[in-house]
């Protein structure tokens, strides 16, 4: 009976020492697993932060694009409405037949290039649709990125994290805290078991104490193993998440590339549409001045008629005065010739026999006013 008790005591002492070695190994494994999980967690956390940062920038750019295109569309609508109103007014403005070679029924609308305006409006509408299509692509891409982020934020490590029940908290902080707790658990088990072995071996009733301590040591060894097992489970899950994230990263990169291409197409169409709207605005201002210019025609025509009439009177008066002067000069030269010419030799001052110069006023063909 004493031999059996001695064997039991000896086995208990051996078991205590084995547990101590095992717990030391568990602690080393816990440290190694925590470091591995720390590296994976840091990498995954940085990836999530990078996606969040890029997504924030993309959403800001999308909001700017959306506001810009809405403003452009409203400007285009106002321009089209103004041009439609302008065309309606031009159609109501009848043209004086005397201005168009006697043709009756002409309106100012007949003198504008309405087809060009309509063509520009259709082109602008097509570009606006292209812009909206690119914005739709970006909207869908943003939704996909949000879904991916929701997946990242929804990682719960199968409930193995020390996360408060009433709050979600930060998953990566929770993972770090859980890893630290399990490592500390392994250290506590190792420390307690070492202290247990030391105090047990020092007790006077060592045989009985060893048998009692063996049971407690076994529980500590199991607790240390549980900490390592917990960390191993977290590592396996984290590795799965890491692989999933690698695949998601490729999709994220493709999504951002797609958004970049859509934004380039948006910018190109937006600039072109802006140019067309500006051209329509210039046409509207031109037609406004066209109407104003037409309204000035009657006064200008009357002014020119008055000018022509006054000029005609001036020419008639000048022609009459020239004729009178010429007749007077001819008469005086005839008197001189009668009085003196037969006394003068023919070779002396032959020009004295010449008649006075005659003048006539010629009307030139009017030239067009430079445009």
TrEMBL record:
Pfam families reported in the protein's UniProt record? ATG17_like
Query: What GO cellular-component annotations does this UniProt entry give?
Result: Atg1/ULK1 kinase complex; phagophore assembly site membrane
Q: Name one GO biological process term.
A: autophagosome assembly
Which terms are listed as keywords in the entry?
Autophagy, Cytoplasm, Membrane
Keyword Transcription regulation appears in the UniProt entry: no
Which InterPro entries does this UniProt record tie to the protein? Answer: Atg17 (IPR007240), ATG17-like_dom (IPR045326)
Regarding the membrane, this protein is recorded as: Peripheral membrane protein
Where's the Autophagy protein ATG17-like domain?
226-344
What broad class describes the main subcellular location of this protein?
A: cytoplasm
Gene Ontology molecular function, alphabetical: molecular adaptor activity; protein kinase activator activity
Which superkingdom does the taxonomy of this entry point to?
Eukaryota
Location comes to: Cytoplasm; Preautophagosomal structure membrane
Protein family per UniProt: Belongs to the ATG17 family.
Record's protein name: Autophagy protein ATG17-like domain-containing protein
| Organism of origin | Aphanomyces euteiches
């Amino acid at each position: 009976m004493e031999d059996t008790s001695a064997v039991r005591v000896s086995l208990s002492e051996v078991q205590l020492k084995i547990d101590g070695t095992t717990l030391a190994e568990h602690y080393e494994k816990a440290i190694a697993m925590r470091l591995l999980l720390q590296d994976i967690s840091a990498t995954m956390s940085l990836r999530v932060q990078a996606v969040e940062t890029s997504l924030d920038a993309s959403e800001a750019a999308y909001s700017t694009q959306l506001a810009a295109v809405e403003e452009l569309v409203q400007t285009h609508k106002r321009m089209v409405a103004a041009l439609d109103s302008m065309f309606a007014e031009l159609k109501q403005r009848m043209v004086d037949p005397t201005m168009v070679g006697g043709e009756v029924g002409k309106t100012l609308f007949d003198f504008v290039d309405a087809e060009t305006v309509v063509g520009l409006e259709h082109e602008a509408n097509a570009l606006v649709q292209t812009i909206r299509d690119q914005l739709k692509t970006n909207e869908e891409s943003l939704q996909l990125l949000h879904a991916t982020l929701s997946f990242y934020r929804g990682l719960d490590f199968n409930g193995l994290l020390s996360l408060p029940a009433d709050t979600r908290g930060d998953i990566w902080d929770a993972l770090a805290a859980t890893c630290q707790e399990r490592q500390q658990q392994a250290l506590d088990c190792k420390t307690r078991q070492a202290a247990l072995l030391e105090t047990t071996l020092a007790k006077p009733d060592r045989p009985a104490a060893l048998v009692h301590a063996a049971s407690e040591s076994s529980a500590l060894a199991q607790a240390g193993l549980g900490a390592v097992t917990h960390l191993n489970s977290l590592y396996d899950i984290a590795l799965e998440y890491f692989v999933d994230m690698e695949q998601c990263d490729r999709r994220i990169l493709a999504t951002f590339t797609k958004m970049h291409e859509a934004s380039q197409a948006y910018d190109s169409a937006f600039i072109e549409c802006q140019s067309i709207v500006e051209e329509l605005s210039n046409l509207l201002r031109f037609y406004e001045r066209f109407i104003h210019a037409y309204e000035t025609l009657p006064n200008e025509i009357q002014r020119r008629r008055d000018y022509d009439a006054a000029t005609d009177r001036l020419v008639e008066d000048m022609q009459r005065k020239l004729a009178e002067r010429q007749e007077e000069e001819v008469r005086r030269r005839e008197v001189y010739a009668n009085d003196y010419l037969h006394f003068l030799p023919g070779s002396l001052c032959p020009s004295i026999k010449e008649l006075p110069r005659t003048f006539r006023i010629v009307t030139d063909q009017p030239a067009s006013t430079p445009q």
